[in-house]
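User: I'll paste a sequence; please echo it back and then give the predicted structure.

Assistant: Echoing your sequence first, then the prediction.
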Amino acid sequence: MSKIKKHVSALGPEYSEKMKSRYAEKVKPSGKIYSKTDRRENRVTADLPAESLQEEKNKFAYQGGCLCGAVRFSISGKLRHVINCHCGQCLHTHGHYAAYTSVDKKEFQLVNDGGLKWFRSSNEARRGFCQECGASLFFERLGGCKISIAAGMLDSSKGLKTVEHIFVADKPDYYEIEDDLQKFSQYYNR
């Protein structure tokens, strides 16, 4: 059986100690505690192409719009995961249950609203649709700080997933909900 040898520098132990002390002299800690913001600001971006810089800046950016393009929007914030709504209003608005995500209104911007029309569907909410192609795009609680967006209107749904069903008691008989996601009889603002 061979014995395991302890690693010894070819130049001797004095040389190794000398190099350690030289390294320690060059790299002295500043004592500053760096935050995430500091690290973000100190990130080297000079060698990145302009497209990569824009992607980095808009890490959670989404765009979307209706079928004909008369309504386009841009989102700069992180979207909530998708919730499937089976309420009677969504059934009549979409022709089937609706899959909605949402974002803070301050992170939502209409890029083209030429075809946008709002319908006040109740005393508490309104729905936005395209008057040109008929696409149902938005659900907004009056006085609320968020806007819900029909998930199918997004150009890319990367990173989103469906997490629950709401108003399942209103579901019509022609389909079943057979997944293992949480199911609620109403929607509780979380």
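The helical segments are 13-26, 36-41, 50-57, 88-94. Residues 23-28 have pLDDT under 50 and may be disordered.
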